[in-house]
Amino acid sequence: MPENRFIGIDFSSKRAGTTAIAFVDEGELHVLQSIKGEDADKFIRNYVQAYKANFVFIDAPLSLPQGLNDPESLEVFYRAADRKLQAMSPMFLGGLTSRAMLLKKTLELEKHKVFEVYPKALVEELQLKEHYKHDLLLFQKELQQLTPPLPELRNWHQADAVLAWLSGSRFMQGDASVYGDETEGVIYV
User: Fold this and answer.
1) Which one, 85, 128, 145, 189, has least CB within 10 Å?
2) Spatial contact of 58 and 185, defined as CB atoms under 8 Å apart
3) Distances (CA, A) of 127 to 103, 118, 143, 171, 179
4) 135-167 pLDDT tens trace
């Protein structure tokens, strides 16, 4: 049986250099970040292939509100999971959502399983809000209690990639919380 290899991704603007990937190799957590001006989607696809990831956990909307295809529904802005977690609407995120959905489709055609995660919700569930987005060094110390050894995180994109990885780890162990509706799209925390 093949090893279950998975990565966490903080998905960001295509050429901003802020997309980050977290993965474990030889018992240690590693973080890679895209390069400003280069294609982040290609960076992700190349790394998923090189790492031979079976599972990809991405911090980006991977579906649209069900109401867009239901003439009886007036809900065309939020999915059930977005409402429950008070997350941004996939519609508000527009182009990022479209890119993420295309990336999911591409990776799934290549036999990778792709799941949506939401780092902010994991922070709340694990009660790590005190330092999140305020003090990266103190937040990293809190994270270190929950992860394999990890390198010094340089920015919040890398921290969110580690949180995406941690949601993936919880999923792999059967411990992830699930929000939303299967017919519309779920978020794993």
Assistant:
1) 145
2) no
3) 31, 14, 11, 18, 18
4) 999 999 999 999 999 999 999 999 999 999 999
